[in-house]
Amino acid sequence: MRDKHIHIAKDSDLLKNIYRQVDEKLHINKRSFLWKIWTKFIFYFFFSVLAYALLYLANSSLYFILSFILYGFVSLLFAFNFSHDFSHNTIFKNKKLNNLCFIFIYTIVGAHAEAWKQRHIQSHHYAPNVKDYDSDLKITKLIRVIPNSEYHWYHKYQHLYAPLAYTTYSLFWVFIKDFVILFSKDEYTEKKGVKYHFSFWTQKLVYLTFILLLPLLFSGQVWYVVLIGFLLMHLSQSLFLLFTFFMTHHVEETEYPTTDENGYIKTSWLMNQIKSSNDMHPFSETANFILGGFNNHIAHHLFPHYHHIHYPKLNKILYGVLLENNIKPNQTSYWGGLVSHLRLLKRMGNPERMV
Q1: Helix 334-348 to helix 223-247 angle, to the nearest 10 degrees?
Q2: Which of 58, 267, 268, 294 has its CA 20 to 30 A from that of 14?
Q3: What pLDDT score was predicted for residue 139?
Q4: Percent of the chain at pLDDT above 90?
Q5: What's the pLDDT score for residue 119?
Q6: What are the CA-CA distances from residue 73 to residues 47, 105, 149, 184, 228 (Å)?
Q7: HSE-up of residue 247 (Cα within 13 Å, Cβ side)
Q8: Quick one: pLDDT at residue 2?
Q9: Given this model, what pLDDT does residue 354 score?
Q10: Is the pLDDT reported for residue 145 higher than 70?
Q11: What is the mean pLDDT of residues 259-266?
């Protein structure tokens, strides 16, 4: 895609300075990196397998449902910590191996891997928070976050109904959104041929087999308990998923760059990435371990080719350069980001405040 950000010389120089300083000051110990990667993989893989195994060991309906919810949460954290990095080829040198692992992990959460990756790399990373460029802004008309976008009467209440609406997103993604993408033309996939369809249907079949069919056959629970567990898993998983995702780009201080009549984005690529992103505990190793680098979103958008394990150290360099240049990165705590997101929804739901 041809870059449609305007060129600002000082921002270009600043970007080169950021890259140079990170390259000079960020010392990566490959042995330590591999040790951390394997430790993290064993941790999340083990707990995902354990949570799934509990579905067949639970001796009551309540424990079974709680195990389903636990599995949904742990498997999502597993995806947070590995699928994202696999999609950016930051773990293995072999791109095909990265992609294979990415598809595997995305399959266990039910989403079509290729469709997400194409939009994430080609659209969201290119111009986050820019209307008509960022595909993440094209999810639903129920939520209004873009200034001067279309307003409906129900947006006045969006800060109240948003948490309830968010609980449905993963079900919508798995059973509606992916299918709409499959059977519609879009600018991200030139041809959805046999290979694309085979990948799609295989991933969906594998997911439905291990998440629904096998528990129905072998858990010893009646069908409606399995269905309740499955639905509650998605509702709780989705709430955590969307709040975490939205807080990375949609809080009170994040910006939404606009375009001119020719489609050119009225800011530089660098400032688009910085001003539209929000960090949560950017120097915390613990937050980074749990959220898989999603809490370090500015660093991720500027350095998607770096694994998220490096982000806390990288941020010390990045923040230093930005602050030296009087650029204050958007930063909240996790809970502060949640509150700030709801405040943004309330502000954007006021018809008298359209910006």
Answers
A1: 80
A2: 294
A3: 77
A4: 87
A5: 87
A6: 10, 14, 33, 31, 16
A7: 24
A8: 62
A9: 55
A10: yes
A11: 93
- CA of residue 328 relative to chain centroid, distance: 23
Beta strands in the chain (DSSP E): 279-280, 331-332
What is the rounded CA–CA span in Å between residue 18 and residue 337?
A: 26
| Rounded Cα distance, 186 and 138, in Å | 13
Task: Report helix angle 30-57 to 61-87, nearest 10.
Answer: 150
The two structure tokens encoding residue 279? 């960090």
pTM of the shown model: 0.92
Give the three-state DSSP class for 326. Answer: coil
DSSP string, 46-101: HHHHHHHHHHHH--SHHHHHHHHHHHHHHHHHHHHHHHHHHHTT-S-S-HHHHHHH
Confidence of residue 191 (pLDDT cuts 50, 70, 90): confident
CA-based nearest residue to 295, from 285, 317, 111? 285
User: Tokens 């984005």 label which residue?
Assistant: 265
How far apart CA 157 and CA 159 sit, in angstroms, is 6
Q: What is the pLDDT of residues 159-175, one digit of tens each?
A: 999 999 999 999 999 99
Q: Name the phi and psi angles at 123, rounded to 5.
A: -115, -65
Q: Name every residue whose Cβ is closer than 8 Å to that of residue 140 and which is 6 or more positions away in sequence.
A: 165
Per-residue pLDDT reduced to its tens digit, 79-119: 999 999 999 999 999 999 999 999 999 999 999 999 899 88
Q: Which residues of 123-152 are buried (b: 16+ CB within 10 A; e: fewer)?
A: bbebbbbbbebbbbbeeeeebbbbeeeeee
Would you give the DSSP letter of residue 143?
Answer: -
| Token duo for residue 144 | 């209004």
Q: What is the pLDDT of residue 6?
A: 94
User: What is the spatial distance between Cα 131 and Cα 150, in angstroms, rounded to a whole number?
Assistant: 12
